[in-house]
Amino acid sequence: MAASSAPAPDAVGLGLRRALLGPLRAATPGSFDFLEAAPENWIGVGGALGEAFAELASRHPIVCHGLSLSLGGPGPLDETFLGKLRRFLDAHRVPIYSEHLSACSDGHGQLYDLMPLPFTDAAVEHVAARIRRTQDALGRRIAVENISYYATLQPAGMTEVDFINTVLERADCDLLLDVNNIVVNATNHGYDALEFLGALPGERIAYIHVAGHFDEADDLKIDTHGAAVSDPVWALLGEAYRRFGPRPTLLERDFNLPPLDELLGELDIVRGHLSRAGGRRRRAA
Fold first, then answer.
1. Which of 108-112, 113-117, 153-157, 265-269 has the lowest mean pLDDT?
2. What pLDDT, on a 0 to 100 scale, did the predictor assign at position 247?
3. What's the pLDDT tens digit per position in 130-158?
4. Which of 28, 76, 145, 226 is a plausible cystine mate for 256, CB 3.0–4.6 Å?
5. How many Å apart are CA 63 and CA 75, to the nearest integer?
């Protein structure tokens, strides 16, 4: 089955969490434009939860953001999972599939965390080859996300942004741009967020993530997805639109979920930035 159309450049979306199933199904039409789901949380799920997911997927575009593929990991790709994933994406006509530019496994199995990759040419070749294989297995182009990280692996042969750009080019894949992760990393590792943003290839941005973080100290931010979006992240999102034009934008919230109306209020802030950048979408009354 062919994928549905990708979300419009001025589309705004929310992460699909089980705790939000009821509120999302009852939401006023036009409250959001698309949903993002982690396929690992929904493949093979039946019963009332599976029916609720299928009903939402029948009414709203669904993009998928993977959690466990471990594109940069040392072990072989899970070909069995890739087969299940392709069937899931096809069944729900998913227009965009993304994963993290990271490793989440070692030789013994899943680590249940996103580990950074060394910024070296060898790592580029390793992860780019795995991305190309993933794209072949899924029969579609994928996007990879710039992750947050708290330690660098040595020796580093290139900068983070050069590493990302080289992977995108050699794998010929797209970018899921997480502006919160740029703010977190720029603070923790002492680089300029605007300079980093400007060095990215705007033509490869499939969509954007925006999320909240925790300020542990002036020079330490923790990427939690458990708080409202901060002013520095909103500012960088606006700058991304000014530099690259409107892009579909997804608000991530994984923990400390507030009432849906609060999340929709943050989507209205996204819409405001989109409007100032040339998008014209408004929340339905």
1. 108-112
2. 96
3. 999 999 999 999 999 999 887 777 667 79
4. 226
5. 27
Phi-psi map region of 93: left, alpha, beta (phi>0 left; psi -120 to 50 alpha): left
Tell me the helix, strand and coil percentages in the chain, rounded to 5: 40, 20, 40
Please check whether residue 42 is in contact with residue 53, taking contact to mean a CB–CB distance below 8 angstroms: yes
Q: Is it true that the peptide bond before 155 is cis, omega within 30 degrees of 0?
A: yes
Q: Half-sphere exposure of residue 56, counting CA atoms within 13 Å on the CB side? A: 29
Between 108 and 239, whose confidence is greater?
239
Helices 231-244 + 179-189 axis angle, to 10? 120
CB-neighbour burial class of residue 221 (10 A; exposed 0-12, middle 13-18, buried 19+):
buried
Q: What is the CA radius of gyration of the chain?
A: 18
**Is the CA virtual torsion 166, 69, 22, 59 positive or negative?**
positive
Structure tokens at 152: 């660098």
> Burial level of 104, CB count in 10 A (0-12/13-18/19+)?
buried
Q: Which of 9, 8, 15 shows the shortest CA–CA distance to 212?
A: 15
Q: Locate all alpha helices (DSSP H) within the chain, ordered by sequence.
A: 21-26, 47-59, 79-91, 121-138, 160-171, 179-189, 193-198, 231-244, 260-276
How far is it, in rounded angstroms, from Cα 190 to Cα 282? 37
How does the average pLDDT of the chain come out, rounded?
91
In this predicted model, which residue has the larger pLDDT, 157 or 161? 161
